[in-house]
Design brief:
By secondary structure, this protein is an alpha+beta fold. Helix content is 21%, strand content 28%. This is Pseudouridine synthase.
Amino acid sequence: MSYYEPLVYIVPSEEEGFILKTVLQKRLMVSRKLLSRIKLTERGITVNGERQYINIKVKAGDRVEIRMEEEQSEDILPQDLPLHILHEDEHLLILAKDAGIIVHPTHGHYVNTIANGVVYHWQQAGITCRFRPVHRLDQETSGVLAIAKTPYVHQQISEQMIQHLVKKEYLAFVWGTVALPSGTINEPIDRDPEQPHVRIVRPDGYAAVTHYEVVKQFEKAALVRIWLETGRTHQIRVHMRHLGHPLLGDKMYTLEQYRDVAAELEASDRLERQALHAFKLGFVHPGTREWTEFNAPLPADLSDLEQWLANKR
């Protein structure tokens, strides 16, 4: 049986006498589900190199280690695809995702996804991991994408997301003149009963909070920085439309008043997707326990769009 590199915790003097289960859950932040899984493996939980039950008491200086079995995504076809790697270590793979590519294979779409490229990359590097993205980016959205290499790392970042501790910042180009330099949109979102694939603001929807700040105001559009407290499907697109400023290139959520200028943009062949880019992702790194941020520069199509808007009169 093969394992990933262990996570190590040295028991300090003030924790002498603690139950091992407490150390695992309160110090290494192992979830109940993951703890149930790793304690069944031969080397899953050790103290000073020896397998131990989780109800023992630890001593100061004890070396507590947890190990997870190596896994791989056997159902994902390895495929040599270009990957823009921002960072990789034994815990995480951080990519700058291109627009137009799907993250994970879906029914009827089994190749040409981020997952296919990542599995191939790991195969070539001799790395055995299961593909575990820790968050989602729509097909048309570019930007920072984090992929966990172990169940522990996935659980740790997911828990930070639940507690709203993960920083996710976006850049979006929106139509019109934004009246306020910054603001917050606190409006619930749910499916449109007449078009189930579309989301709308509705009083009985799920809580959704979006913050924005105008970075540049052009004559007919604006570049805004956006950060989220919640992660509802299409949240940025729906909230900016509700504000009266739909995203450039977003055919699903455009407004009638912008159709002429949107058609002009489409005719220019400068943008083939919604103008949304996830430029920053920050969280406490599960391996180092330090705050870490990753940034993806504005891609070429949006940089070109910014120049076009600046010259537009």
